[in-house]
Design brief:
It contains 1 helix and 5 strands; from the N terminus they run E-E-H-E-E-E. It is of the alpha+beta class. Strand 3 and strand 4 form a beta hairpin. The two termini are 24 Å apart. Keywords: ATP-binding, Nucleotide-binding.
Length: 75
């Protein structure tokens, strides 16, 4: 699954490939916004952690990862 995080004043968004379900990621994001800790922490499928201050999060987009086509394909 792919998670895109828009950060204020950053020219590019953070893109994370996660093994978690969309429901799990949504719960983590909403809990981070509601909590007093002030950080959003997610882990990608390779075990790396991304920590973003909640005050700087502009948006979070949660989407199923689409398989990428390899080679020449006819559409």
């Amino acid at each position: 699954m792919e998670v895109k995080i828009g950060v204020q004043y950053a020219p590019r968004e953070l893109v994370i490939e996660s093994a978690q379900t969309p429901t799990e990621v949504e719960k983590i994001v909403t809990d981070a916004i509601a909590s007093d800790s002030g950080v959003l922490a997610l882990q990608d499928e390779k075990g790396r952690r991304v920590i973003v201050p909640v005050s700087k999060v502009a948006y979070v987009e949660i989407a199923e990862a689409a398989p990428r086509a390899v080679g020449f394909t006819a559409r």
